[in-house]
Amino acid sequence: MTAEIPDKLYFKIGEVAEITGIKAHVLRYWEAEFPVFSPQKSRSNQRLYRRRDIETALLIKDLLHRQRLTIAGAKKILNRKTAGGGDAPPPVQSAKNRRIIDEIRRDLERLRDSLSSTPDSH
């Protein structure tokens, strides 16, 4: 999550899409799926995202795309972390922990592949 977020109070959906690399229709879908991700709306019903909304979108993107969680799994993590932590989005895992998890995931995939290619001994 190293996107550069400009120093502004509010962002339109197109700006958020550009900053995060997430398409506008996906952002709208995530609003329906993740209650913690809910931008304000202007009088003309235009979405107005704040910095924390962008940070939350980047966190959701990380959970779904890089950590490969399901929507349900990402919801559980977000709900668990925000239950005791106010408005701020939860911090992402440290780079070291991510590398360890990625390495374990690769090891498990190799093990699964080797087991599926081994003829059954029964």
Automatic annotation (TrEMBL):
Xref: PROSITE patterns: HTH_MERR_2 (PS50937)
Annotated InterPro entries: DNA-bd_dom_put_sf (IPR009061), MerR-type_HTH_dom (IPR000551), MerR_fam (IPR047057)
Transmembrane segments: none
Keyword DNA-binding found: yes
Domain HTH merR-type: 10-80
Region (Disordered): 80-99
Keywords, sorted A to Z: DNA-binding
Gene3D superfamilies: 1.10.1660.10
Annotated GO MF terms: DNA binding; DNA-binding transcription factor activity
The keyword Transport appears for this protein: no
PANTHER family: BLL5018 PROTEIN, REDOX-CYCLING DRUG-SENSING TRANSCRIPTIONAL ACTIVATOR SOXR
The protein's name in its UniProt record: MerR family transcriptional regulator
